[in-house]
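Hi R.,

Here's the input for the magnesium ion complex you asked about:
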Amino acid sequence: MYFDTIAAVATAPGEAGIGIVRISGEKALEIVDKIFRTKKERKLSDFQERRLTYGYIVEPDTGKKIDEVLAVYMKAPYTYTKEDIVEINCHGGMIPVRRILEIVLENGARLAEPGEFTKRAFLNGRIDLSQAEAVIDLIRAKTDSSFDVSFNQLEGGLSKEINEIREILLRMLANIEASIDFPEEDIETMTYEGLLDEGNNVLKRIEKLLDTVYTGKILREGLKTVILGKPNVGKSSLMNAILRENRAIVTDIPGTTRDIIEEYVNIKGIPLKIIDTAGIRETEDVVERIGVERAKSLLEEADLVIVLFDVSKELTEEDMEIARLVKNKKVVVLTNKIDLPPVVSREEIEKILPGKKIIETSIIKGEGLEVLEDSLKEMFFAGEIKIKDNTIVTNARHKSLLLKAKKNIEEAIESIEMGMPIDCIEVDVKDCWENLGQITGDTVTEDIIDKIFEEFCIGK
Ligand SMILES: Nc1nc2c(ncn2[C@@H]2O[C@H](COP(=O)(O)OP(=O)(O)OP(=O)(O)O)[C@@H](O)[C@H]2O)c(=O)[nH]1
Ligand SMILES: [Mg+2]
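And here is the predicted structure with magnesium ion in place:
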């Protein structure tokens, strides 16, 4: 494959200690030899490769110094892109970096597209597609756990599993071919039994990967946690307590919160997307009513609902309605304001929300919050999740391909069990193999590749 020479700024824009301009392609060294000089007028190619060399970027015609830099030449194929790479470390800041990039472009490089370096790493066969996708996830990771998952994927955790499953599928295809080619050998019954075993094995492994999708989604997007309750029970106080800042307005006037407030927070390693809502009640106020409707509709997509009751006052019809709304959801109940003289007993709450976890709290005094945080963790990850040695699927593209592959293999298994002609089975096994191959990029089309790398940042 032939590629031209590309260049881009690899560091984030703005003030910083250093900035890096990265050049990849056949002409990388030739270009830098035109614009780099040491104090003794030597070029980068006069030095050993992979050695950081001190010098200046200069205008080729006039010799005028642009910036003081350290430059390094890395020879193909042991580089990020598997091509020749030169990196120029200059002073950080907008001007030096931009000037050096300009001079590099004037001397024969083309400005790289977003993700083009990583795209080349993929096209040149250093990493597969799921590893390339892990690069962008690493850069974007917002929690330690999502970083760990992406790192595992970059190291080839997912690829290894997919490749192993695909090898079984290949073996199945070979057996099918053999029995098509030699039908008279009467190996058919044997083939069917073997195929069934292997098909079930494939199905089991695909299902195991799909089982991690929910955890993966949480690690990536946060556990969607909606705080619900009638007005004035302390929802916004809880939001602030969890965030440890005064994010939401808290007053003793019922109906204070009218819109949805969303924030990300990490609780004991679980990323939460926590959502404070308007207190649920019948109201004449138009704005508040919209807020109440929004709160209700949010329930649909919630992974978890934290429901609050004020136990210093009698339960009302509003509390009953809230209990009905969350009956079928994953719920933690907080009986709040236990610092005040109690009017409602725990039994009464148990009666309207049977079987749900109940925690007594005084948010104002910080009581019960530790218990809440511990039970959130328990509820979602029975036992510690070991991301480091587990392959977790976080990517929506991978999920949809795994679902397709699952359907393929299920259909193949069904055909085997029904004793269908062997070429009917072949189609499904082949589709399964191809769908899985799209995850690693083995069977992927160019437009999908382009779409994936468009998401990247420039310089990566
Ligand atoms: N005594 C006591 N007061 C509390 C407790 N938690 C919250 N409050 C008070 O209850 C009042 C209402 O708190 P908010 O957090 O604004 O209640 P909310 O549920 O968000 O109310 P709306 O936004 O109107 O739906 C405030 O005056 C809080 O200080 C608690 O544990 N004990
Ligand atoms: Mg509020």
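One thing worth noting: The longest helix spans residues 157-181.

Cheers,
M.
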